[in-house]
Design brief:
Chain A: Pfam families: DctQ (PF04290). The complex is a heterotrimer of chains A (177), B (434) and C (310). With 434 residues, chain B is an all-alpha fold. Chain B has 22 helices and no strands. The two termini of chain B are 35 Å apart. Chain C has 310 residues and is α/β, with parallel strands linked by helices. In chain C, the strands form two sheets. Chain C has a six-stranded mixed sheet with strand order 7-6-8-5-9-11, with helices on both faces. In chain C, strands 2-1-3-10-4 form a five-stranded mixed sheet, sandwiched between helices. Chain C is globular, with a radius of gyration of 19 Å. Classes of the chains: A mainly alpha (177), B mainly alpha (434), C alpha/beta (310). Chains A and B meet through helix 2, helix 3, helix 4 and helix 5 of A and helix 1, helix 2, helix 3, helix 4 and helix 14 of B. Bound molecules: sodium ion (2 copies).
């Protein structure tokens, strides 16, 4: 059991996935900053208004939002209230974590389905933005990718935490040594 | 009504069981869609539609600025500068902490960045000077939400967006409440320390020395102090829109971090973008999900039900505001600021309008409540962070935190709620009729 | 059964009142069988989102602009110079006009929706920010004014031919942008909209009189197909009856708010006959070809012919 998770988290796939996510986060942030600065520059220096720049911003924004949230799932840094876990022991915390990840995975599945269905509809209706004619598909695809990645990470961490829970006593010993 | 109650019960249960907020709410959304037999195909496109608002891009940009400021240690120069003025009062360093938090928070808008950066620098100094540890950490924790009130602030941008109010007006509405809060915190800090023993106070210095230090520290802090001037000045004078100003702030912070404070590196910059993207992603996907829930609540006519309920109790706006405050306070205890706002503001706007309360006034009330929300247990992310940054057991912080809430936050909240002029005067003066 | 009708306009706006009266009429005439509930102020989403939902059946009805995201042919409704002045526009919006027939067929091309008709919203002009001065509004000279224009290609071509610089600014930032001077003007509202939203930042209002907005009443096909012929007829009749009232209200509102703007010291700039004719010429020459790319030339000829008949 442990081998599977370790193999996965040490695999090229895992690393490359994470790198791609980081790459998208940097590129999308840069796109937003540069586009907005160019708009200001265009207005005051060139006296030129860029039409439809908002469509580029929306495109970059959705990649940033959903890849960012996926990376948040990878880091396990989604916002939680953490009320109960303040008051319970380590083992119970682990159980809570497993419950929480299970909810994420269960909720994730319909979200993946719905976002996929939205993409199918985009393709069917051929919607595009008005000015730059960017297909809606491009800015809605990250929603599907994001929910898929979030669910994927939740599933992986369920397996990891269940393993931890099973071998809780041994690991505690190993820690104290 | 029963269904809404059940959905809310699910949310509260999930939140208490440490399920991330976004999934807690999504469970409720899916539950309602299933129970009401709605075709769920609108959930995704509706979420997309509402989150594609351009103004929301301020959120990642301000997060970026905060993160760059934190990494380039701009905070240190701010603290040294403020210290020149109040360092010689007993408890003066505490005031330095409050004011620095306000200034740093103004630009970064992030309570986390403020507490980590300002707290990280000033708490060791406060301990050195003999401040009680619990008191010092509690003070900084109470001061870190100031950035939420002093503009620019991404929370206020989200408020303006949800409530369809002018961003500039919302920014201005919370300025005076922010100043009142900072003053209340500073005063209660000094009063609470009156009886404390073993505290060092800086020696008196001559006026000449004072001016010298002001100049030295001023020059050092100038680039940092320029940032809010550029952002707010540029926005209010019409050089750029609020969204654009956030991008300009990033553009400004980069060279300042690289060449003036020299703590920023290219690698740190990339990390900044990744962190900002992640923080934003987590928040924005939450926005995405929360808005689908609020759409369902609208379809179930919840706002009208609440109006009918409140009208049955009283038609007096003061009483309604009391109810709103109690509700926000309660929500703030169990939820983070952004989710509480996303959940309540779309429902509150039609209600306050009905009872003749200005949405801009509500902006200030919501702002203060949400700031308070992040430090009131049990869900008190800043309290836990404060304990970690200050290396103090949380129990030691509890009593002083409670005192600050009673002597600083509650008075501010009461002032803001029952003197609408405090929040409306500045927007009216600068923006004219609102 | 209760049906959801979505509008992006705020409560109290006269077109929404028209929709509300229409709903009451339908409810009464169907003995309460068709109960339409109006969701105003974009509570159910922006108009593009709502249109998609009507196509898919998650919202039953829509009272909104036609969105060219789904069919470029809808741009015809926002093409300048198609009709000028209230009399012509009202004639154009008659159920049997080539315009309405064209809209009906264009809506048919979007799966899942049925077009009932168009309410006249308003004739839109340009609201110019306080600090900005337009010397010659009715010619093609450079206006030195950054104007926000709805994202309709023909309308954009028209305003740029009149000498404006076009800019994209999100609607949420229009007010503050006009106030701070980033934006010279906005072309997206009629007098009532301008007065209610932008009064404090507008210095003058230019009546171009040849660009009008309509709100189309569209029903999801899933819902429409459940109605029997009698119900369908009741809906058409209720719509037609209110269309006349809304057009009247539109005229009244136009006058009323032009007067209110004057009282609020907003300068109203009105073209004379020659200037109007000149601008119609600009629209025909510059803006129409842009729209004809999507709609073909014929519909424009048909409309001109229809309007020239007595
Ligand atoms: Na701030
Ligand atoms: Na709290």
């Amino acid at each position: 059991m442990k081998n599977v998770i370790d193999k996965l988290t040490e695999s090229h796939f895992w690393n490359i996935l994470q790198r791609i996510e980081k790459f998208f986060l940097i590129i999308s942030s840069l796109t937003v900053v540069i586009t907005l600065c160019l708009v200001v520059f265009g207005r005051h220096v060139l006296h030129y208004g860029f039409l439809g720049y908002t469509e580029i911003l929306v495109l970059a924004a959705f990649w940033m939002y959903f890849i960012g949230a996926s990376y948040g799932s990878y880091e396990e840094s989604h916002i939680t209230a953490d009320i109960l876990s303040q008051f319970v022991g380590e083992k119970a915390q682990l159980k809570l974590a497993i419950f929480s990840k299970c909810v994420q995975a269960v909720v994730g599945l319909p979200l993946i389905y719905l976002s996929f269905e939205m993409l199918q509809y985009d393709i069917k209706t051929q919607q595009a933005t008005v000015d730059l004619e960017i297909p809606m598909l491009w800015s809605q695809a990250p929603i599907f990718i994001g929910f898929t990645l979030m669910t994927f990470y939740a599933l992986v961490y369920i397996v990891r935490d269940v393993y931890k829970l099973k071998h809780f006593a041994e690991m505690k010993e190993a820690e104290t040594e | 009504m029963l269904l809404i109650g059940m959905a809310m019960a699910i949310v509260v249960f999930m939140i208490i069981a440490s399920v991330p907020i976004i999934f807690s709410f999504m469970t409720a959304t899916l539950f309602l869609v299933f129970k009401l037999n709605y075709d769920p195909s609108f959930l995704m496109t509706y979420g997309y539609d509402v989150t594609s608002a351009i103004v929301l891009l301020c959120v990642p940009l301000y997060v970026c600025v905060g993160s760059i400021m934190e990494k380039s240690e701009i905070g240190r120069s701010l603290i040294d500068f403020v210290n020149v003025f109040v360092g010689r009062i007993k408890g003066g360093l505490g005031i330095v902490g409050v004011v620095s938090s306000a200034v740093f928070g103004s630009i970064s808008g992030s309570s986390t960045a403020t507490l980590t950066c300002i707290g990280g620098i000033i708490l060791p100094r406060m301990y050195e000077k003999g401040y009680p540890r619990g008191h010092a950490a509690a003070l900084l924790t109470n001061a870190c939400p100031l950035g939420l009130l002093i503009p620019p602030s991404s929370s206020m941008i989200i408020y303006a967006w949800v409530s369809r109010q002018s961003i500039l007006a919302c920014f201005l509405a919370t300025v005076i409440p922010g100043i009142i809060l900072a003053a209340c915190l500073s005063i209660s800090n000094v009063l609470m320390l009156r009886g404390a023993t073993g505290m060092d106070v800086e020696d008196k210095i001559t006026t000449k020395e004072l001016f010298h230090r002001m100049r030295v520290e001023g020059v050092e802090a100038l680039p940092a102090l320029c940032m809010p001037v550029i952002i707010l000045g540029g926005t209010y004078s019409g050089v750029f829109t609020p969204t654009e100003s956030a991008a300009i702030a990033v553009l400004y912070a980069i060279p300042v971090g690289f060449w003036i404070y020299k703590k920023l590196t290219l690698k740190k910059l990339w990390v900044t973008f990744i962190e900002a993207g992640t923080t934003t992603g987590v928040v924005m996907v939450m926005v995405f999900c929360m808005m689908t829930l609020s759409r369902i609540l609208v379809m179930m006519n919840l706002p009208e039900l609440i109006i009918a309920f409140l009208s049955g109790i009283s038609n007096n706006p003061k009483v309604i505001l009391l109810f709103i405050n109690i509700m926000l306070l309660g929500l703030g205890m169990i939820m983070d600021d952004t989710s509480a706002m996303l959940l309540t503001v779309p429902i509150l706007i039609p209600i306050v309008t009905k009872f003749g309360i200005s949405p801009i006034h509500l902006a200030a009330i919501v702002g203060v409540n949400l700031g308070l929300g992040i430090i009131t247990p049990p869900c008190a992310p800043m309290l836990y962070l404060g304990a970690r940054v200050g290396k103090v057991p949380m129990l030691e912080m509890l009593v002083p935190t409670l005192k600050f809430i009673i002597f600083a936050w509650f008075p501010t909240l009461i002032f803001v709620t029952y003197f609408p002029e405090l929040s409306l005067w500045l927007p009216r003066m600068i923006l004219g009729n609102i | 059964t209760t049906y959801r009708l979505a509008s992006h306009y705020q409560a109290g706006y006269f077109v929404n009142n028209g929709f509300r009266r229409m709903a009451e009429r339908i409810k009464k005439d169907t003995n309460g069988k068709v109960d339409i509930q109006l969701y105003e102020s974009g509570q159910l989403g922006g108009y593009e989102q709502v249109f998609q939902e009507v196509m898919r059946g998650t919202i039953d009805m829509q009272a909104n602009f036609a969105t060219s995201r789904f069919n470029k042919k809808f741009e015809i409704g926002f093409t300048p110079g198609l009709a000028s002045g209230y009399d012509q526009i009202e004639k154009l919006l008659n159920r049997n006009s080539p315009f309405c027939k064209f809209m009906e067929s264009a809506y048919k091309e979007c799966d899942g929706v049925v077009y009932i008709g168009s309410f006249l919203d308003t004739i839109a002009g340009c609201s110019i920010a306080k600090g900005t001065n337009i010397k010659n509004p009715f010619d093609t000279s450079n206006k030195n004014c950054q104007l926000r224009v709805v994202s309709i290609n023909s309308a954009r071509k028209y305003y740029s031919a009149l000498g404006y610089q076009l800019v994209t600014i999100p609607y949420a930032e229009v007010f503050t942008s006009m106030q701070t001077g980033i934006l010279g003007g906005d072309s997206g509202s009629g007098p009532e909209g301008v007065y209610l939203t932008f009064k404090d930042v507008v210095g003058s209002y230019i009546e171009y009189q040849n660009l009008f907005f309509t709100l189309d009443f569209v029903i999801s096909k899933n819902v429409w197909d459940t109605f029997d012929d009698k119900t369908k007829k009741i809906i058409y009749n209720a719509f037609d009856a209110e269309a006349i009232n809304v057009a009247k209200d539109s005229r009244t509102s136009y006058k009323e708010y032009i007067d209110l703007m004057k009282k609020a010291n907003i300068k109203i700039v009105t073209p004379n006959k020659e200037q109007l004719a000149f601008m119609d010429g600009v629209a025909r020459k510059e803006a129409w070809p842009v729209c004809e790319k999507y709609t073909g030339k014929k519909i424009f000829e048909d409309i001109s012919e229809y309007l020239s008949k007595k």
